[in-house]
Amino acid sequence: VEFMYRPGNVSRAPPVVAPHQPRLDWQMWFAALAHHSSSPWFTSFVYRLLQGKKDVIRLVQVDESRYPFSAQPPVYIRAQLYKYWFTGSAEGSEGPAPWWRRQRVQEFFPAVSLGDPTLESLLNQHGLKDKTPLKRSADAFLPRLLQSLRRLSRPFSGPTVLWSLYLVAATVCLLRALGRRPRGGAPPARHKGPRRGEPADRGGGEKNGQVRRKEAKEAEEKGEGRARGAADGHSDGLRGTKKKK
């Protein structure tokens, strides 16, 4: 069984999947770090492949023609554990140049079939036996929407769907940025107040000029009043000194 993203065929180049995160292939990498009993989901995965579940097969291969048991489920399944390394430029061989070299470590999951006592025992141990499915309304909006999306995305792989969504989002942002730019003509100039010696602008500028002149006149009157008060005080002080003399 060839997976879409995980190493298998030593002559196949590793696919570029970023930013897609393949759920099954990534979890199989973690499962291989310990005994299969530490990953109960793997027992369920083998059980569903023996049953020929379409949704599980699509996690292995989107293109059913590349899955050898698309017409009829396999009778037996087992899993072997291998270690993989990239080949070097000096490692030559006959036929297609291999991308990988691998070494068999041990058997990861024993050969089982439907009704096998070992498989049944593992399913019962982890509580993975088939249960009565929940009854959902056939007219519910969310299930119908998800089914429609699955049907539309079925011919495409995960990376293709993700990159298409990113390109659509980038196109929308670009169009919005272009729509905000002013069309034709010079950009509007910022409003500046009149320079010294220049007449004030009409409208708001004229009103601002009147207010400024009024404020300047009041400031001058206040300054003159202070100067007169200071002069009167000075003269009163002189008179007082004369009287004392």
Automatic annotation (TrEMBL):
Keyword field contains Glycoprotein: yes
Region (Disordered): 180-245
One GO cellular component term: endoplasmic reticulum membrane
Chain intervals with Basic residues compositional bias: 180-194
Top-level taxon of origin: Eukaryota
UniProt key word Hydrolase: no
GO biological process, one term: protein maturation
Keywords assigned: Glycoprotein
Stretches with biased composition (Basic and acidic residues): 195-205, 212-239
Segments forming domain Lipase maturation factor 1/2 C-terminal: 2-110
PANTHER family: LIPASE MATURATION FACTOR (PTHR14463), LIPASE MATURATION FACTOR 2 (PTHR14463:SF5)
Protein name (Swiss-Prot/TrEMBL): Lipase maturation factor 2
Organism (species): Pygoscelis papua (Gentoo penguin)
Originating gene: Lmf2_1
